[in-house]
Amino acid sequence: MIVHIVEDDEAVADALALALEGMDRRSRIYPDGEAFLAGARLSSEDWVIVDLGLPGVSGTEIVRQLLLMPNAPRVLAISGTTQATLTRYLRELPDMKVLRKPLSIEAISAAFA
Question: Domain spanning 2-95 has what CATH number?
Fold first, then answer.
């Protein structure tokens, strides 16, 4: 099982990877949606943590594509945007669980429980 981190903020991606390592989870970082879509090899046992506010291919578009997969990985969305923008994202993804930045280790652990 791999946790794929799709996050354009290098510091956030690195912090997530370190937190996951502390939880004995392997991770792979992708700096943008394009790199993720081109390079990720996914299984139904994997997780994808995706920033909804990615430049280029948006996080919401990535989530939509993942949910169409027959054996989709589990998805956790993260966002550091305003509440108004987050509300707009969630209109497109009504059943999506979202963690707000700044992220806490407790929130990340609970999401994987």
Answer: 3.40.50.2300
Dump pLDDT digits (tens) for 81-95: 999 988 888 888 878
pLDDT in tens, 16-36: 999 999 999 999 999 999 999
Instruction: Please give the structure tokens belonging to residue 11.
Output: 């510091």
Tell me the two tokens of residue 79. Answer: 């966002």
SS3 33: helix
Residue 29's nearest CA partner among 45, 12, 44, 43 is 12
Phi/psi zone of residue 56: left (φ > 0), alpha (ψ -120 to 50 degrees), beta? left
Q: What separation, in Å, do the N-terminal and C-terminal C-alpha atoms of the chain show?
A: 15
Q: Measured between alpha carbons, how far is 89 from 54 in angstroms, rounded to an integer?
A: 12
Residue extents of the structural domains in the chain: 2-95
Whole-model pTM above 0.90?
A: yes
